[in-house]
Amino acid sequence: MQTTSHAFKDNARKAMADVDLRTALKRVETGFTTARRKAADRLPEFEDLRDAGRDIKNHVLENLDFYLERFEERVIAQGGKVHWCSTPREARETILKLCRSVDARTATKGKSMIAEEIALNPFLEANGIEPIETDLGEYIIQLADEPPSHIIGPAVHKTKDQVSDLFLEHHWKYGRTERQTDPQALVNEAREILRQKYVDADVGITGANFLVAETGSTIIVTNEGNGDLTQMLPKMHIVIASLEKIVPTLDDMATIMRVLARSATGQEMSVYTTLSTGTRREGDLDGPEEFHVVLLDNGRSEMVGTELQELLRCIRCGACMNHCPVYHTVGGHAYGWVYPGPIGAALDPHFLGIEEARHLPSASTFCGKCEEVCPMRIPLPRIMRYWREQAFERRVGPPLERAGIRFWAFFARRPALYRLATRLAIRVLRRLAGRRGVLTALPFAGGWTDGRDLPAPEGRTFQELWKSGRRSP
Amino acid sequence: MTKQSVRVGLFVTCLVDLFRPSVGFAAVKLLEAAGCVVEVPAAQTCCGQPAYNSGDRADTAALARNVIAAFEGFDHVVAPSGSCAGMLKHHYPRLFDDDPAMKARAERFADKVHELVSFLVDVMEMPDQGVRWEATATYHDSCSGLRELKVREQPRALLGKVEGLTLTPLPGAETCCGFGGTFAVKYGEVSTDMVSRKCDDVAATGADLLLAGDLGCLMNIAGRFRREGKRVECRHVAEVLAGLRDVPAIGEGG
Amino acid sequence: MTVSSREKILSGIRRGLKRGPLEGSARDAVEARLADLKRNLIPARGQLDRAGQLRLFREMAEMLDATVEIVDGPDAVPAAVDGFLGRHNLPKTLRMAPHETLEALPWAEKAPLLELNRGAARVEDQAGLGMAFAGVAETGTLVFLSGGNSPATVNFLPDNHVAVLRASDIAGAYEEVWTRIRADREPGTLPRTVNLISGPSRTADIEQMLIKGAHGPRRLHIIIVPDDEAA
């Protein structure tokens, strides 16, 4: 996917001016957060389960090589194959080769963020294979030719009216000439059109929420059932997953499963949790004849043992963005790459480089809400701060900002000088404000004064007053 | 140790020092009422967050060393800000991961650090001050105080004792106001959008007084209210608890 | 020979962990954890007594918009299925998983007009009948194992999904189901597909409005056959 992360400020400005988007984001803010809180409140063990989930993931990361090898062993033993891919390019080419091995013309796809990460769809298209998104949200944005704006609700930014228009435009060729406006009718229309696609597809591609080392299973968690139809009808099932998805046992999966849907949508459990293991067995009446797991690294192995390791606990529930006041303001597209919101702010610089992604970890108030709700207790603000330090060290970003901080710090590190300087500065500010009590414009602080006044100082610094013996205002 | 001998170092915070000394005096008054002996070391400037949040770790660590040296001799270190207290308490030790001796010092120091209102309630059990303040107020939970220091019930408990004050709940009280220090300048438009929604929420409560425990958030919200031309008084919670009625509200001039 | 991506990835991880391949006691510890299959924290809600589990299963399944019917015994299942189809004005045609328990039911006698088609489901099927391997009370979840007697397509393709579940197969928590699945199998293996199904298919992808029947079944009807005391 083409990144626009460097243009975060412009992206954000456009997003804030989009009335439909604002309505959609308000729904995210109230809908998802309320549902999560209710789900968490209904399960007294919720906080303890978060701890348990975090501990499982930490254990996995300390033994990641072992569990990956064991997973592969179990996949092979049950008729499947694991393809280890270091780079997105290798993963794309592996998938293309697999598709070509069965002369595939179409491939149905379940929702996968990794497929977005490796930009699979344009690549398949360019090579003569039609990818068909089957998750309703993904289907909508595929028709609109847009990237997802949320990791679990890829089309949260779309209105019903926009969906009606898209369906009319793209379903005309199927003889659907009536513009539907009822949401149930829209869902039915997509359902009916996609039904034949499942049957006709030569390959089904899904993502994975978990990989289980004990059994070599890949697991998807969905509500629609599209991922299941995607993988059970074609003769080949390709799973694309990043390597940190692994858990040791089914029991470990159950523990994390208990916090996944509750954190994501506030459901007790998603409708379909499906464990896929190997190929169809002798005597089976359905299921794929081939099973391939494309295991993507894309720099994740380099995160092990570093400040970024904790990011590998992420289960992609979306709770951080659902609760993020900045996400609520600018939406997902403003972040300019696959992973938006706090997880994107912490993760994207690793994939894109801090030069391209510098705004993302910077555009946070460090309010801490994301860490508060992250089921895996990832210290997202701490990791954003790590990136800010990287940027500062490497002199990325406007030199003036950096100079400003160094200039301020020069004084702040020298209390006597600082007191002198601030006494003067405060008098000037006070004089500028006059009797109005506020300043309405200030050089170098346009970011502040463009949108709000700056309350004027009372007149003298506390230190000055205290030194002069004042003990009350 | 009797309460009279509790020596508190007041960490004034840079914003209070520069913009609103009244909050500092309110803090002194409350701490003394709670039985503390208050001192204000002259060697303090700022907790270092502007540098820390900009990725300037070296300057932050240098500032932290100054603050620790100036305050480590006190029984307690108290700041009228959850954000600054959180910085001193939770972030200073992390600045010295490569200097075990300094880290240990920072940790000992961190143990003594408190946010003002939670200190008054949890540590000093301050007696009722018999303050009267006629207003319908609402309270915004500043992020750092809330999440890093668990300041939630303490201010509400003390405000509950103020005669004449009706405290009405603020929907979304725990949602960030968009201040975020340098964020408010670097990402001014996003920040303005966030604070506008906060102002809408405050205005919708019908309260005539907004209280919070952090001057940064208050200047942000008050500044936006002034720009919108709305008259909602914004004050630090300590001002009300100390009964400083004569001081004009934030951004109100006078 | 160039280094394979597999080697590159594994050695990258090991470099990060500052060790070589897991060996000796460290490896033994991880092997032991994997062999022990120890359960983690299970919510109290998943550990009720038998009667409580049955009650909770029903409550949770209904909360998810599944319908639940408790019949008098196995012989009452065909009429219950027939009744379900009738209530929803569906044709009296059923795609049935050729499961031995379902085959043994008195179809001809109790639902003579019902046409039964065995095998994997097809796009045109309107109703499917499957035999659940287990139910999980904790979240009102059904568990199906794919196999020659249980094609997974039956659970997904037809618009209406009817599931037969023995009361004694209702477990408190997922972990009990794993134990049961493992009991009959070679360690480290599973059927091709294990489906955990919690209510009918739904989506909220259009303005977060909840719409049922996105791709999977629009209706899920669970027929519980009481075969233990608690039921």
UniProtKB/TrEMBL annotation, chain A:
UniProt record, GO biological process: lactate metabolic process
MF (Gene Ontology): 4 iron, 4 sulfur cluster binding; metal ion binding
Pfam families xrefs: Fer4_8, LUD_dom, LutB_C
Domain (4Fe-4S ferredoxin-type): residue spans on this chain: 304-335
Gene3D superfamilies assigned to the protein according to its UniProt record, in alphabetical order: Alpha-helical ferredoxin, NagB/RpiA/CoA transferase-like
InterPro entries per record: 4Fe4S_Fe-S-bd, 4Fe4S_Fe_S_CS, FTHF_cligase-like_sf, Helical_ferredxn, LUD_dom, LutB/LldF, LutB_C, NagB/RpiA_transferase-like
Domain of life from the UniProt record: Bacteria
Keywords linked to the UniProt accession: 4Fe-4S, Electron transport, Iron, Iron-sulfur, Metal-binding, Repeat, Transport
Record's protein name: Lactate utilization protein B
Organism: Oceanibacterium hippocampi
Automatic annotation (TrEMBL), chain B:
GO molecular function: oxidoreductase activity
InterPro entries, per database record: Cys_rich_dom
Superkingdom of origin: Bacteria
Residue ranges annotated for the Cysteine-rich domain, each copy included: 8-89, 138-221
One GO cellular component term: cytosol
A Pfam family this chain is assigned to: CCG
Stated name of the protein: Lactate utilization protein A
Gene: lutA_1
Automatic annotation (TrEMBL), chain C:
UniProt cross-references to InterPro entries, sorted A to Z: FTHF_cligase-like_sf (IPR024185), LUD_dom (IPR003741), NagB/RpiA_transferase-like (IPR037171)
Residue ranges constituting the LUD domain according to the UniProt record: 59-225
Membrane-spanning intervals of the chain: none
Gene3D superfamilies xrefs: NagB/RpiA/CoA transferase-like
Coiled-coil zones: none
A Pfam family assignment: LUD_dom
Protein name per the record: Lactate utilization protein C
